[in-house]
Specification:
With 499 residues, this protein is α/β, with parallel strands linked by helices. It has 18 helices and 22 strands. α6 links the parallel β9 and β10. The chain is globular, with a radius of gyration of 24 Å.
Length: 499
Amino acid sequence: MSGPILQLRGIRKVFPGVVALDGVDLNLHPGEVHALMGENGAGKSTLIKVLTGVCQRDEGSMELNHAAIDPASPLEAEANGISTVYQEVNLVGSLSIGENILLGRQPRRFGIIRWGETKRLAEAALQRLGLKLDVSAQLDSCSMAIQQMVAIARALDVQARVLILDEPTSSLDDQETAALFKVMRQLRDDGLAIVFVTHFLDQVYEISDHITVLRNGGLVGEYRTTDLPRLELIGKMLGRQPEESTAESATNGDTATGESFLKAEAIGRSGQIGPIDLAIGKGEVVGLGGLLGSGRTETARMLFGIEPAESGSMNIASDDTRVRTPRQAISQGLAFCSEDRKGEGIIPNLSVRENIILAMQASRGARRLLPRAEQEQLCEHYISALNIKTPDSATPIGNLSGGNQQKVLLARWLAMQPQLIILDEPTRGIDVGAKAEIEKLVRSLREKGMAVLFISSELEEVVHTCDRVAVLRDRKKVGDLTGDEITGQRIMELVAHHE
């Protein structure tokens, strides 16, 4: 392998009250996939922002092909040959797939866009990913997975020398991930340098050649992937050896009261889910198992009234209920943490305090403001209880890491003292340590008698967190598992079974 194409030395970046990066080095070679690993808050996102010109470093140096660079904007970084795909898709939903892929680079003649050529180039960009789509289709009519692939196709359409992929597989299924990895290997073999950020350890060991580990804004080290065992990697990320107890199974209903809180019978929504039967008891964690697109999120949104059921019946706390809106769901003691943390959760420019009290204040109405002293007391309680890492409650939530943003959203709903909380992918895109803390929180909620509906794409989380699992396939329920039946193998057997 030749010398580094990209070298970072002693990178330091300080935000008000937070040292985000402190003396970080990075060596990126042509023809390699380099994984950037660390807990949320370790500095990965900030390092990418420095690399791409979103923010400027305070100290340190950057060289591309042995020439000093200092990009002042993402456009300037792209001009230097550094292209990025972020975890949250940053495209224009009201435009077509083709327009998004070529946005700002559409072929023109006499100032007029050549739409036929735009279509041809967009189709060629998608072909590199093995996709054949209608490039005239509006982007926001596509699934999140397709939108992510379009973002990747746009990045690949630029003649980049360095490609940064920030959690590119978070919304992709196994087949789509395999297609992306095939493209990444081809690009690597063609000499492209790829920075790969992910929280999926299997993917790191499948695709990467080197790993750089960050912790608390500092550099832990750079390693060959083949020389770094998984357990050792986790230990370096956490600064301690991972607890073996994290792999233990759930208590299998030991804290369940036997009293049903929610019972749904044959509820469904045309084109989305159902009919499905589902029961959740007090002090019970019920999981929804299945692959991407199996109907897990659709079920959660239907229960909470975001996209209400069109058929069937639902009983909450022994009362027949027709939940048509989230407001009605909240009044019945339900809470919902969406998988789309950025789009449907946080308000980035508001403070941690304002984000925490949002649901409570909305329930009181505009004329009954929650006193400031109560707001502060409430926030300090949950910042402490959930170990939210923030300088103070006045810090904008957008400055926090993904894992800490997730904890703030949990605090928002726990402040409402719900009887049932729906957690849709609560650990997606967050680090190993934050995952363990959230899983511990779920167990404590169960012990307090709260009902929990738990959705996760990681089978291990479902297995050791849930007392019961409803398995979905093709937007239908195909089985229920309890106790010792809850294993990853059994869930996959139900998903793969054909009658």
